[in-house]
Amino acid sequence: MPSPPSTPTSAAPKRPIGVFDSGLGGLSVLRALRAELPFEDFVYVSDSGHAPYGERDDCFVIERAHVITQYLLAQHQIKALVMACNTATAATIHLLRAQHPTLPIIGVEPALKPALALSKTRRIGVMATRGTLGSAKFQALLASLADQADFVCQPCDGLAYAIEHQDTPEIIAGVARYTGLMGQFGLNSGDIDTLVLGCTHYPFATQTFRNLLGPQVQLIDNGEPVARQTRRVLPVLSAPDNPGQCRLLCTGDASALQQAAQRWLQLDDPVETLKR
Ligand code: DGL
Fold first, then answer.
1. Per-residue pLDDT for 12 more than 70?
2. Does domain 13-108+225-273 correspond to CATH entry 3.40.50.1860?
3. What is the Å distance from ligand 1's center to 87 Cα?
4. Where in the chain is the domain with CATH 3.40.50.1860?
5. 222 lines ligand 1 (CB under 6 A)
């Protein structure tokens, strides 16, 4: 049983929670975090200047995660880190935890267990980046559950990039291409009835998935479970005085993050540029 977080106290200095992703995808996790922890401050880093991560090698992703974590600790004194990126979690979370043993670090991984709890046909689709699906961490998770369902895993090169660039024709083409490669979706025996969105960018294409797959296929992402887990491991909760603040920073072109933050989280403050 994890120990409960300390009682909120207004005397405690308010330190933010750091959140990062290769781009705007982690906003799907930030949205859930703000709903679960409305009095916490957040600093979100979009590393879009170095995206996408999903088709890069581990060394590259490890270096980026290291640079961003150091920055968030040194410049923002974060009290916890949420890696809102499946690819970065798979490649680096064990290393970051070893380097920062006193910092609570929460990662995301494709939600296979929640999908198992929902699937009736026992045929489950998993869409994620090539990096996530090829990682030792994901392969171990898959092996531990392989006797309970058929998992159809599909790497989706280019899909996070299309979502990052709000390229609607490419998003529709990518979702159609990759779901088409996975086989039949539906509720009949042998159909995929549950689809795990194993990249934090993909929830922003939910409508496209719905249009192509119909309303009956269950789409699973992990924003809400990650937000609940963050609450459980936080050492100190902020006092319920003022609503939490949110700063958005970006290593690349800020316009996509700005538009997505306005549209999905109603955040209007200007995105700050980060030279890292
Ligand atoms: N959003 C990231 C994830 O959850 C990956 C996107 C990318 O390829 O950079 O894996």
1. no
2. yes
3. 6
4. 13-108+225-273, 112-221
5. no
